[in-house]
Amino acid sequence: MADAVLLSELGVGLPIFLLGPAIAMFFGNTQENEGIKKAFSFSYFYSPIFLSIILGLAILFIPFNRNNNSIAPFFEALKMINGALTILACLILSLQLKLKALKGLLPLFIISAIIQMWFQPFIAHVQANLYGLSLIQTQVLVLNSSMPSAVIGPVFASRYNCVPDTASALVMAHIVLSIAMIPAVFYLMSA
Predict the structure, then answer these.
(1) How many contiguous H segments (helices) and E segments (strands) does the chain have?
(2) What proportions of the chain, in percent to the nearest 5, are helix, strand and coil?
(3) Tens of pLDDT along 26-49?
(4) How far apart are CA 22 and CA 99, in angstroms?
(5) What does the angle CA 121 – CA 122 – CA 126 come to, to the nearest 5 degrees?
(6) CB proximity list for 102: less than 8 A, separation 6 or greater
(7) CA-to-CA distance for 28 and 156, rounded, in angstroms?
(8) pTM higher than the cut 0.70
(9) Cα–Cα distance measured from residue 115 to residue 19, given in angstroms and rounded to the nearest whole number
(10) Residues 79, 71: contact at Cβ < 8 Å?
(11) pLDDT tens profile 47-56
């Protein structure tokens, strides 16, 4: 479980929150985007997500007594917010979904599903064998790499006007496909 948490937070969570907004800013259709394309801009470093990551990392090293009656409610509130993050991201994803033909998205969906749910786990499995990881570490790595797209991606796409409809449709399709793909990938990579 510790391996899964470490891989998930450092290998997935941190890059999503550091690179996701920067990529969406660059390719999005907003005022901030124009400044980035014309000349290098520091607007990304002033974005709320980047500032919250830096603040979170800074607070991490402050030794708090979590049993203190004046601080304990604050940490409980943070736990509740953390628990609600996934639900809120899924709610935003569902609100962004629109009934539209998947014909135009089908090639993009097939290519992204092959890369994300077959190629990534295969590369993770090969690298795990090269590094001599244990069976459980290899399985955790393969399972993490075969997960569907993060539901927070369409939130970034929506915020920076970076084709949010397409991002939402692809993430939802990946989530539905993962019901069959994750067990299949795990079975094939374990054999």
Answers:
(1) 10, 0
(2) 75, 0, 25
(3) 777 655 555 555 433 566 677 777
(4) 29
(5) 115
(6) 109, 169, 173
(7) 9
(8) no
(9) 19
(10) no
(11) 777 787 788 8
